[in-house]
Design brief:
Number of helices: 7
Number of domains: 1
Distance between the termini: 16 Å
Shape: globular
Length: about 240
Amino acid sequence: MIELNRILGANHFVFYNYSINKNVERVLDYYKTKGIVEVLTWNLPMKVDTWPPRKEPVEIHYFATIRGLERLLLRNFIKSKYLIWDEFIIPRKGKSWREMLSNLPANQAAYTFRNVFFRKEWADTNLTFAGRDLAEKYKSVTLLKLKRESKILSKTQRAKYIINPKYVDTVGIHNIWRFKPGKSNHYVDPSIGLLNHYRSWEQPNDSVARMDDQQTLIYKDELLERLKDTWSKLHNVPLGA
């Protein structure tokens, strides 16, 4: 997740730690020493969503994500030109976010990208490519899960966005709730960029229409080199644990 987004153009990452595995913590510690990652403790004194869902009702929605996003907006109002929330925004025109944005109207408060689901429970691609052995070794979802739902969700369904924090007042999970006066959002055409959303619906055999999508393979060589280099330095973290 970190290395692909770095290739795309991210230079700083913020993680909220509600509960993580010790090995994940060690990986994040490595990136912290490089000044790339910031980890914020996220202790919530109430019942939150879990998977599988808990029987008793939750007391706040989705780990208080809205509050977390608001905090990120305020913390990065001055120091960040753009903010991006999770998933993978993959350019379809241009290779990086910078190149992609050069094909879009300038000075927008937000650029919103439509969602496509890549189901993690579907089989890995049967495509043979140089470096596939490394992709399997490092369990690179973005290089091995190359089949997605054919349907591209509407611009108001599960979308995510790139924002200029100076132009935004209030954010939601999938949309901007309020802009600064005179500022607005640009909905990005799927031919320019899409939101690759990797998740498991735990329904591997349902009849949803699917298609091949190999766009992430354009990052293959650089991504595998970065993964190889990073894992060579994580001596105290079992691979695949």
